[in-house]
Amino acid sequence: MPIQLLDEDTVNKIAAGEVIERPVAVVKELLENAIDAGAGSVTVEIKDGGKSLIRVTDNGDGISEEDIKLAFTPHATSKIRQIEDLLSISTLGFRGEALASIASVSQLEMLTKTRGSFNGSRYVIEGGTEKSFGQAGCPDGTTLIVHNLFYNTPARLKFLKTPQTEAGYISSTVERMALSNPSISFRFINQNQQRLNTSGNGSLKDVIYNIFGRDITSNLLETDAVKGSCEISGFIGQPVISRGNRGCINYFVNGRYIKSNIINRAIEEAYAPYMMNHKYPFIVLNFKIDPGLIDINVHPQKMEVRFTNEKELYNDIYNTISGILKHKELIPEVSFGKDKNNNIKKEKQKDKEVILRVPEEKEINSLFGITTENKKEIPAKNTETKFRETAAYNAHNIKQETLFGTGIMQAQASNDIKIIGQAFATYWILQYGDSLFLIDQHAAHEKVLYERFMKQIEENQAFTQMLNPPVVASLSMAEQQVLEENIQVFKKLGYIIENFGGKEYILSGVPAQLPDIATKELFLEIIDGLLDNKTEIAPETLLSHIATMSCKAAVKGGKSLDTKQAHELLKELMALDNPYNCPHGRPVIVKITKRELEKKFKRII
Question: Across residues 256-271, what is the average pLDDT?
Fold first, then answer.
């Protein structure tokens, strides 16, 4: 077949496929245009998941009559002038492809009026062909009405999902736009029903409440920091808020919602000591970064961003979130809610009977993530996966204290703490003030060992246990490279590693804190982890990963400690910056108030 030029209509439809994959892409592009136009309020209305109708109305600057037709020409934009402008983009849109792409695969009508103009304009274009153009009465701003999306590209239409699913994508996009622009009022209407309405009062916390509700909003920690070349603002959730996927991790770079492996990893690593494996935090953060340090011209959808200072950005985000979480008293408070047998009645009126049930051993084990099968070897992976799903971590049954310096962990509290005893050879029971505190001895010991190890490393005092005989490891070319790149980190941990010629390496010393577990297998596991990351990570993160292996050296649940040993363990635990979670995220301490106990015994109702 001979080579030939494609006609303009075909070219436009191919280009539209890159920009407009589904209805949500239309909404995203039009919302970005509205925000760039300085809108103070935006309304999005859809029907049939956006297939039959998408209407986006804003009160922004509008488009002048002489620019309307040009706006629907491919690569026509008011946001950049030359290639150098790509290095300093401050707007959400800049490619000049959106309107042309949308018009080529739909029946589109636009009403627009600039501020100060007497009349507005109405423009109708179907499948990229102009149908009508003239003056019309309309308010300031722009309304774009998209009918019958993909009516002339049936192949694209048949791959769309159900209207409910497509509407869900659009809803998420509108929510993210609202989170990144709290000073703009957003309304979202689906099938004639209003689903979202934000005030536009500039309060991000109000937007979060509007979208996610009270439980999440009441467990937020504010973030406002300047780190290097990055300004970080917004809110992070306390660890008690966790989800099984990354759906609640929302971050924006210069107001643009993106996806970034480097940012995801920084966030998740910062939360790692406070959360179970395979659980993810709640995040709404905006990063302000010099546009010259980022490249957003990677893909037409503008979801991917490249950073010139990845390592610095990683450290800035990791240190900011870690610093906030580190100085909060994160002790879960347990209230005794409704059980699965419905044999507890919640108090509604003072004259109603209140029936409360004392928790059994299996329920306390459940709270700490311990089962009969794994009690001797804690924490196990299946425990970590199931832990947050227990009733004790339902939002209505737990609140998380953030009273650093005023609770049980304050220095002066140590003289007033009474050790009542030990339950089930696993949990130490303490009394302080009007509350009981249950401490998991394994998690506590693990945390103490972990912090002791990390402190030695930070102070360059890590000790080495010599191996006799040494261990020989054979590494591939990729493994050798990652070892050489991180050799100083291994030395800082206490490893002594020498090249034995070719791809053979001698391991003659290991961290003294972990002499029984820091073997060849762990060494190779660390190397594999570095290879999986593919991107250079901060040494502090690698140190933290390795130090979590201290759990294998900690005293196990079910093994009794005497009171003297318990005193020493608790004394060292309470001197830590973060004694509330073990390195795997399980809680070390939980709290039961005197009021809860008195309610059980009907002393109060």
Answer: 89
Beta strands per DSSP E along 97-192: 107-113, 120-126, 129-136, 141-147, 185-190
68 Cβ contact partners less than 8 Å away, ≥ 6 residues apart: 110, 112, 121, 123, 133
Residue 287, token pair as written in the block: 């990063």
SS3 state at 476: coil
Torsions phi, psi of 594, nearest 5? Answer: -60, -35
CA separation, residue 279 to residues 388, 436, 443, 526, 538 (Å): 8, 28, 18, 22, 22
Going by the DSSP 8-state scheme, the letter that residue 162 receives in this structure is -
Are 194 and 188 in contact by the 8 Å Cβ rule? The answer is yes
DSSP 389-405: TSGGGSTTTEEE---TT
Mean pLDDT, the chain, rounded, equals: 77
Q: Which of 535, 239, 259 is nearest to 249 (CA)?
A: 259
Closest CA to 482 of 531, 524, 545: 531
Q: Which of 224, 218, 333 is nearest to 282 (CA)?
A: 218
At 71, the amino acid letter reads: A
Give the least confident one: 56-60, 81-85, 229-233, 303-307: 81-85
CA 136 to chain centre: 46
Token code pair at residue 144 = 């774009």
Give start and end residues of each alpha helix (H) in 113-256.
154-158, 163-180, 204-212, 214-217
Q: Which of 537, 458, 80 is nearest to 265 (CA)?
A: 537
Q: What is the pLDDT of residues 182-227, one digit of tens each?
A: 999 999 999 999 989 999 999 999 999 988 888 889 889 999 988 8
Query: Is the pLDDT assigned to residue 500 strictly greater than 80?
Result: yes
Mapped onto helix, strand or coil, the DSSP state of residue 139 is coil
Please report where in the chains the tokens 């103070």 appear, as a residue. 40
pLDDT at site 424: 86
* Phi, psi (deg, nearest 5) at residue 361: -60, -40
- Report the SS3 class of residue 176: helix
